[in-house]
Design a protein that fits this description.
four-stranded antiparallel beta sheet, six-stranded antiparallel beta sheet
């Protein structure tokens, strides 16, 4: 139940962040778009017990976005303004994902929730905006019910 509520909360945050932006009626396009690159590494994710939800969303105030907007590990994700990863993405051979925009955007938001229910879970989370690191987080979850929960929002 906690997983469902957490997912719903993240998705509502993404929706409200993106839908709260509106166009200027004066047709002034003086904002500066940004490109984003998010790198996440998670080690020792237990597919039966741990919880992982990483959701990214982006858009332009004009609504014009190149498709595919997002790439995950170099592979385009067509027809979507959001991308997400869950625990199943980290239980195989791939432990690091690079998610990046293929074009500059006005609004970006990320919701991350990782809950450990067993052996230590470690990793890192980084956000780069226009090739400059703006967020660097170390993830070190030891013990049952330890969590890493963060929301990040950027707009130009």
């Amino acid at each position: 139940m906690k997983d469902i509520l957490s997912d719903a909360l993240v998705h509502m945050m993404v929706f409200f962040t993106l839908s709260s932006c509106s166009n200027n009626d004066d047709n002034n396009n003086s904002h500066n778009d940004s490109s984003y690159k998010i790198t996440i590494t998670l080690n020792e994710v237990n597919e039966n017990n741990d919880y992982v939800s990483i959701t990214l969303a982006g858009n332009n105030l004009s609504g014009d976005v190149e498709s595919p907007l997002w790439s995950i590990n170099g592979e385009g994700q067509p027809n979507t303004l959001t991308v997400s990863l869950d625990k199943n993405d980290f239980t195989g051979a791939t432990k690091t994902y690079i998610m990046e925009t293929n074009s500059a955007i006005d609004v970006f938001t990320a919701g991350v929730q990782i809950i450990n229910y067993g052996p230590p879970l470690t990793g890192s989370f980084k956000i780069e905006q226009n090739n400059t690191t703006v967020v660097t987080e170390a993830i070190n979850l030891v013990g049952d019910n330890t969590d890493f929960t963060e929301d990040y929002s950027f707009s130009d």
